[in-house]
Amino acid sequence: MLDTTRRPDRHRHRVNPFELSDEDLRYKYRFSKRFGEKIVGILREDLVHDPRGCPLSPEIQVVCALRNWARHEIQDDTADLHGVSQPVVSRTCKKVAEILSRKSREFIKMPITLNEQQETIRKFRSIANFPTVIGAIDCTHIRVKKVNADGGQLYINRKGFSSINVQVVCDADLKIMDIVTRWRGSVHDSRIFRECRLKQRFEAGAFSGILLGDSGYPCTPYLFTPLLNLTTPQEERYNRSHIRTRNTVERCFGLWKQRFRCLLKGMFGDIETAKKTIVACAVLHNMAIDMREDVFSGERDSIEQYSSEPIVQRYIAPSIRGNIRRRQFIETHFQ
C-alpha cells in the first residue's frame, strides 16, 4: 500500500534574527543589528516575496546574504541555520546582490560639487601633505570558479587562477567612489582605466583634483604615478608622500575583504552573479563606513593581512604631457 503521509518539512522553523541580542547577531552575521535593520529598510520594498508556500521575510533574506558574503561559509550551513534549502539561499543571495547593484549609484559616487571635491582633497592632504588628490586608484583580483565556456582562459591572471580584475577608486576614508567589475583577470590595470568612463570624465575636466596610481598606470596630467629613478630631494619627498597617500586604496581593499570574506576567498557562483555580488559588497562597505560600523571583534588589528598580495604589473611609460605636468607639480609643491 502506498504511504501518502507527508513528511514534516524540516525547513519551516524560522526565527527572526533581529530578535537576537546585538552581541549574538554580530557573532553570527559579523554586523550589528542597527546595520542589518538599515539594510532591510532600504531593500524591503524590493524584497517582495511570493505568498505561496512558505515565503522568506525581507529580514531573513538580508541576513542570509550578509552571512554568506561576510563569513564565506558553505550555503548548506546558512540554509540549515535559517530553516531553508541551499537553492533558496543561492537564489536569495543572487536577488539581494541584484537589488544592491541596481542601487549602487546612490552609494558609490565621485564627489561632484566643488565643496565635495575640496573636502576630499583636504582629507587626502592631511595624510602626507600631498595636494590636490581626489582619489587613489588600483585594481584587485577577485577569485572566481574556473570558467569552462569559450574564452574561459582569459579569466586566468598572471598568478594562474581565474579572477575578475576589479578597478576601484577610493577616498581618504576608505570609501569606494568608483568601481569597474566587467574585466577578466588577464586584462592589465592600465587597459581597464583607459577604457573606463571615469577617464573620460577626467579628460572632460569634471574634477578639480588628480588620481594617484602605481607604476602599472601611465602618468598623465590627471593620474600621477611614482618616480622610478630618483635624483633630487624634491623627487624623494614626492615619492614618500605619494606612497603614503596612495596606500589608502590598499587599506580599502584590506578592510573591504575583511568585512566580506567572499572577496578574499573567492566566488562560487556564475560570473554575472559574481560581478553583482562584488558591487553589492562595495555598497555595503560604504554604508558600514558611513554608519561607523566596527570591524568584527578581535580582527581590527589585522586588516593588512587580508589585502591580497598584488599581482605585479609591467611598468607603463608616462605620456609626454603627463611627465611634464608631474615635473611642474614637483617643482611647485615639493621644494
Write the layout of secondary structure elements.
Blueprint: H1 22-29, H2 33-43, H3 58-71, H4 75-82, H5 86-102, H6 104-107, H7 114-128, E1 133-143, E2 163-170, E3 176-184, H8 189-194, H9 197-203, E4 210-212, E5 223-224, H10 233-259, H11 261-265, H12 271-290, H13 320-333
Parallel strand pairs: 1-4, 4-5
Antiparallel strand pairs: 1-2, 2-3
At a glance:
Helix content is 47%, strand content 10%. It is built from 13 helices and five strands.
Give an overview of the whole structure.
- The chain is α/β, with parallel strands linked by helices and 335 residues long.
- It is 47% helix and 10% strand.
- It has 13 helices and five strands.
- A five-stranded mixed sheet has the order 3-2-1-4-5.
- A hairpin with a 5-residue loop joins strand 2 and strand 3.
- Helix 2 (33-43) packs across helix 3 and helix 7 crosses helix 10 (233-259).
- The chain starts with 21 loop residues before the first helix and ends with a helix.
